[in-house]
Amino acid sequence: xxxxxxxxxxxDAPGMNAAIRAVVRKGIYQxxxxxxxxxxxxxxxxxxxxxxxxxxxxxxxxxGGTILFSARSEEFKTDQGQELAIKQLKKLGIEGLIVLGxxxxxxxxxxxxxxxxxxxxxxxxxxxxxxxxxxxxxxxxALNTIVxxxxxxxxTATSHERTYVIEVMxxxxxxxxxxxxxxxxxxxxxxxxRDEPFENVIxxxxxxxxxxxxxxxxxxxxxxxxxxxxxxxxxxxxxQETRVTVLGHIQRGGQPTGSDRVLASRLGAKAIDLLLNxxxxxxxxxxxxxxxxxxxxxxxxxxxxxxMSLYKLMGELSI
Length: 319
Ligand code: ADP
Ligand code: F6P
Description:
Organism: Amphibacillus indicireducens
Distance between the termini: 57 Å
Cofactor: Mg(2+)
Subunit structure: Homotetramer.
CATH architecture of the largest domain: 3-Layer(aba) Sandwich
Bound molecules: adenosine-5'-diphosphate, 6-O-phosphono-beta-D-fructofuranose
Binding site for ADP: 21-25, 154, 185-187, 211, 213-215
Strand content: 15-25%
Protein name: ATP-dependent 6-phosphofructokinase
Strand order of the largest sheet: 3-2-1-4-5-10-11
């Protein structure tokens, strides 16, 4: 393999740039030509492919977002779209593709591999919802964004003796909610993976106030429902003045943390190694601090498992 392309797809994640840098630098180190595709699979079909040099990825390791831009493309889901994408790659003599994204993007990478074009995936999403890796690139940064925001909310919550519901992202996964709940000392965390009776939430709130707590913070994963609705219900039922903050896309931006930059660098370099070893249709990951690899087909057929020991710990510490 002499020429490899890289693209970013789906929701962006802080650390994607560090992963692009690692792919480009490790590829060139190995004597390859590396090409960057703009705007994900849509850009691939449109032939937006340019050769990258060492300097193309200078000064980006610390930047959020993705210098290659991201996109969501319905057209690429069709056989014709995928064939067109492969045609564009072959036109430039490119023989392998590295896809940075989440499970949707990996489905696209798998489709191309099944059509004879070797792809490798790097898990990049703030949701941390990909099996076969303990962490995805972007999760740690988003977690720290939530932690900082919730600390600020706690200040004003205390001043006004209010209850706060903070709705966080995560799509169908509760990782961001659970980890931030633990990190922020929240009263309750409500996640899709666990059916928490509403009465328990209310009970904990009342108990907290009875022992003199000046504020209460509840972290709600977006996959469960609306924070606004929950806030109204809490105010009516618990009789506590309640405010709601929906953190939204602020969670997707910002400088990647050191951990995300290191993870992205390790996974990016490993993706190059896999393609050079002739491995295709694989995803690179990190498990127990070791770099690992799994077939994308296996990853897509498995559910994401949240570490429920953290949920138990949360319950023990928020009594
Ligand atoms: P993420 O990768 O973050 O999960 P999406 O689910 O939006 O994001 O997927 C990103 C892109 O991957 C889609 O816009 C589409 O181009 C491609 N993709 C998703 N599902 C498929 C599919 N079933 N077949 C081919 N491509 C797909
Ligand atoms: O997958 C990342 C994510 O930020 C999810 O947490 C969220 O549900 C979704 O993307 C939001 O997507 P959009 O950028 O299309 O609003």
